[in-house]
Amino acid sequence: MTKLYKAGILGTGSCLPQRKLTNAELEDIVETSDEWIVKRTGIRERRIIDNDMPLAKLAVRAAENAIHDAGIPREEIELIIGATLTPDYLCPTLACSVQKELGLKGVPAFDMNAACTGFVYALNTAQQYIENGAYKYILIVAAEALSRVTDYQDRKTCVLFGDGAGAAVVGRVEDGTGIMGYVTGAHGELGHNLTIPCLYSTEEDLAKRNEGKKQVVWMDGSEVFTFAARIMAEATLRVVTDARLSVGDLDYIFPHQANARIIQNAVKRMRYPIEKVYSNLERTGNISAASIPVCLDEASKAGMLKKGDRIVLVAFGGGLTYGALLLCWSR
Ligand code: UT7
Fold it and tell me: Is 0.85 surpassed by the pTM of this model?
């Protein structure tokens, strides 16, 4: 396929809810301990959205932040892609709500759900529109309110998840920079290992959950763990090899933040130094699709990224899905 332009990230933004949920507070809710959570997951606290706040509001703040960071007038945005598995409404979508709040009347807007791989899938989708010349500026907004689908009586899952929003403006960048390659995939046959029923559920779905709780996460943690560590290593190695590079050529890796042990295990498999792997898990927990864009925004605002840096964004999630993108930072 002819690529007319190179696509890259022009600006990033994020917004986390104010309220913190600490491990000590969780000790009062379920039978767990700060020691167990830190040792087995690396998480110390996560942010939780207020009951009366729509997720779209967090998403709009992250989006405004990213547009400001990109230095473009918001009217230049030609497409909005929402990445979420916890939208306020099935319709209107998160992307449509953001479009309305930003006053971008008429701009196409849609959501995609690839669970925790959502941002990688969305960036890969935006990349196609930029490369073929269809649009000049695309807003991706990845936001999650996982606390709304978490069963706080289930200690196997409730210690893991948090809420938050991350955003990016994607557009044309100089040759030799931007998105240099991608690997994406899904294993539907493994989907039963991580489920959140929505409009339909089976007897088995109900049996796995605490009574009366239908639309909450159920997960076979160790199955997902094994898949995640393997696939994040494989996808990273594939995306760098396809670009005729090696992991040693990478300045940073931004992995999906699910569990510190998954990250350590994946990084060990690819023989990459853990010091060059970005992590905010300790403070945010797992915020699914929002995880990578929040990390990118933090790193970018902290001045960690410079033009020409080679980075990999790599994620796995419900589906089960996975994806890795190789980027040469263009800002
Ligand atoms: O974005 C994708 C979302 N999913 C994930 O990333 C999750 C991937 N999986 C994981 O992160 C890990 O599998 C968990 C953190 C979920 C669990 O860690 P683990 O080391 O695999 O523990 P385990 O499930 O093998 O459980 C070990 C023990 C069990 O007790 P018994 O059966 O040995 O007596 C659990 O009941 O730890 C117990 N346990 C807990 N104890 C205290 C499970 N959760 C907790 C808890 N506090 N919160």
Answer: yes
